[in-house]
Amino acid sequence: MKYIKYPGTDKMVSVVGFGGLRFDLDKTDEENAELVLYAYEKGINYFDTAPGYCDDRSEIILGVAFKKLIAQGKTDFFVSTKSKPKVCPSKELVIESVKKSIERLGVEKIDFYHVWCVRNMDHYELSMQKDGQYEGLVWCKENGLIDNICFSSHQPGNEVVDVLKSGNFTGVTMGINLLNFPYRWEGANYAYENGYGVVAMNPLSGGTIPNHEKELAFLAAPGETVTQAALRFNISTPEITVSLVGFSSNSDIEEACIIADSATSFTKEDLKIIEERFNGNSNSICTGCGYCRVCPKDINIPAYMLLYNEKHLFNKTDEEMIDMVYGLEYYNYTANTVGRANDCIECGKCEKECTQHLSIINRLKECSAWESKTTDHITV
Ligand code: SF4
Ligand code: SF4
Questions:
Q1: With bands split at pLDDT 50, 70 and 90, how would you rate the model's confidence at 307?
Q2: What is the per-residue pLDDT for 186?
Q3: CA 341 to ligand 1 center in whole angstroms
Q4: Of 264, 245, 266, the residue nearest 255 (C-alpha)
Q5: Which of 15, 46, 102, 327 has the smallest C-beta neighbourhood within 10 Å, fewest atoms?
Q6: 122 Cα: distance to centroid of ligand 2 (angstroms)
Q7: Position 321 in a domain
C-alpha cells in the first residue's frame, strides 16, 4: 500500500480508503467488521463513514472493528465521518452528533469530520451561520473531539474552489471518477495546488462503469477491465489524496491494493482523449446518488436519469432507447414507484436537489416520449 501525507496535516494516509457504504446488511455487525479488519491488515488506514449509511449501521460496524484494533494496541488508522448542515444547523446539535459518532466508533476523536453533502452555496452558507454547524465543529476541534474540519461536496469544480478559498476547511471529499472528472477537476486541481486534501468517492460512477464494459472498453489498458481502469484512475491520480472504494469482499480489497502498488497514472493526454471522446457529455451524467428523490408525484427520477445516461453518453438512437424502456433492468428500477415520466408537473424540486445540476424536467420529457412510443406501456 502506498501512503501519502494528507495536505495540511501530519497524517500519512493510505491512497486507498475504505468507503463504509457497502456493507452487506444480511450479515451481522461482527461479520461485516471482519471486512474492515481485513482492509486494515492489507494496509488501508483511512475509513470513511456517516450516520445513516447502511441503515445507520456503518458507524456501528466500523466501531466493532476499531474496538478490536484498539484492544490490540493498534491505533494507526484514521476515521472520517460527517453531519449535514440541515440536520445539525446549530452548535449544540453538531456537538451532540460528533459525540454520538465518537461513541459509536469507539475512538477518542474523529480525524476528519465533514460538513456533509454541500450541494450548493446555500448549504455552505447554512453551515457557516452564527452559532451554527461550523462554529460547533470549531468548538469540537478546540476541545479535542475532532482533528480536521473538511466538507463533502456535490458541487461543480468552480464552487468547490470558492468553498476552499474560504480557508475554513482542511480538505474536501467529492465524487470523482473516470467519467465525470471534468465536472470537478477545477476543484481537485485547486486543492492539489493549494495544499488541501482531496478524498474521491464514487469511483465507478454509481455502477455506470461496470455496467458498460463494452462501450467503455477504450478507457482500459491492454489486459485491464474497465472497472480496473476506473479504480486505477482514482487511485493513481496525484490530485487525489485518498480514493474511497466501497468493498464487498476480501478480493475487492486485494484488487484495490494491487492497483495502489503498481498502477501508472493516466497522462494529461489520456484525459484529453477521454474528454474529447465524450464530447463534453461526461460533465452531466446522473450518478444514481438519489438526492433527487423528493418528487411529489413519486417518479423514480434516478431510474429515469440512469436510463437517460445511455443516450447522453453512448449516443443511442430513439429506437434503441424505446427498446431499453422495455428492458428488465429499467422495469425493475421503476417498478416500485407509481409515477411515470409524463406525470411530472415541473415543480422543480428535484432539480434544486440534484448533485449534478441536471435538467431533469427536460430529460423526463424525452423519457416520456420513449415510453409513449411503446405499445405495451409499462404499468405497475
Ligand atoms: S419537477 Fe417533476 S420530476 Fe421533479 S420533483 Fe417536480 S414533479 Fe417530480
Ligand atoms: S438526477 Fe441528480 S440527484 Fe438524482 S440520482 Fe441523478 S445525479 Fe443524483
A1: confident
A2: 93
A3: 9
A4: 245
A5: 327
A6: 18
A7: yes
Ligand 2 in contact with 115 (CB < 6 A)? no
State which of 286, 349, 351, 359 you would mutate to test the pocket of ligand 2, scoring each by most atoms of that ligand within 8 A of its C-beta.
Answer: 286
Residues 239 and 293 in one domain: no
98 and 196 part of one domain: yes
- Candidates 86, 165, 90; CA nearest to 135 is 90
What integer is the mean pLDDT of 318-332?
Answer: 69
From ligand 1's centre to the CA of 304, what distance in Å?
A: 12
**What's the domain range around 350?**
286-372
Over residues 348-364, the pLDDT tens digits come to: 999 998 988 899 999 99
**349 C-alpha to center of ligand 2: Å?**
12
Which residue lies with its CA nearest to atom 7 of ligand 2?
A: 286
CA separation (Å) from 270 to 237, 303, 304, 315?
12, 31, 31, 21
Residue 282 near residue 179, CB atoms below 8 Å: yes
Q: pLDDT at residue 379 above 50?
A: no
Model confidence band, residue 336 (pLDDT cutoffs 50, 70, 90): low
340 and 259 in a common domain: no
> In the numeric block, which cell numbers belong to residue 62?
466500523
Distance 331 CA to ligand 2 centre (A): 18
Is 380 within the bounds of a domain?
no
Atom of ligand 1 nearest to the CA of 345: 7
Residues 268 and 319 in one domain: no
Output the pTM of the full model.
0.87
> E strand or H helix at 173, and its extent?
strand 171-175
**Do 312 and 215 share a structural domain?**
no
- Ligand (nearest to CA of 284): 2
Give the total number of structural domains in the chain: 2
